[in-house]
Request: fold
Amino acid sequence: MTKPVEHLPDGFIQAFHQNDAAIRDEVMTGLLAAEARVAPKFLYDALGSKLFEAICELPEYYPTRTEAAIFARYLPAMAKAIGVGVTLVDLGAGNCAKAPRLFDVLAPRHYVPVDISADFLRDAVAQLKCRFPDLPITAISMDFSSAMALPDAVGRDRRLFFYPGSSIGNFAPDAALAFLRRLRAACVEGDGGGLLIGVDLVKDKRLLDAAYDDALGVTAAFNLNLLQHLNALLGADFDVRDWRHRGFFNVAAGRAEMHLEARRDVCVAWPGGRRRFAEGELIHTESSYKYTREGFLQLLEEAGFVASRAWIDERAWFMVCHARAPH
Reply:
């Protein structure tokens, strides 16, 4: 039975309720697949979220600072295309660090940060309310990766879905198209609106390899921490010392990949199951698809968006797109 949406006293909406049994089933199914895999959302436990924040500061990890430079340079043009007074729906808001940079020029009438991590989001929003006491804020804890049903508290005003940081790359192309179509439908549910999204572009393999396997080993720690999370979720007995991180750009597939590779033959057990991994066998933990400008604009068109605009940095490493949902 699905639990109801909870409207908590501080304006926080709890629309996601963790189903421990379903999570265990999902993780076990992935681990027992012919080619073992774990969904990248499980990288983001409390420590994983902090490690990813550290990754964003690394010299090799260009997306964060490149995207920030695009916003710094082109924000007035973006604001002209978007207009003011939107309901700004911040998908995967995390620590709510990026959206406030838009507040001065977009003058949103309502800010709606959305994230699956309720505790992480609650702390960030508490700080934000002190900085912007006059801005209505409705924080929502929900898993938007498979559904986009916003609570009535969001209202029906014109919506701008904000999805920065190239997170769209975590979806395989077919899933990305389905996700974008759900966003377009959610705009139409309101008084129109659109999407402002960050997209990582195809580039030299050496740059991408370094971005996913940095010299300090922070990305390796981020990936290996997944094993600790799996131990907590499943009661498994993964030993981090039995595994190594692998991160690289798969040119043929058009995506960066992260894997955990067994250093030796190892058997991992958990209540109700086990799996033997041979030395060199992989667990696929993340994919991040990269796009060309033309390829992503075509994807937006297929999803039903119109009047797409793109702003790209001087090295053509990253792109920010705005597209309207016809109303």
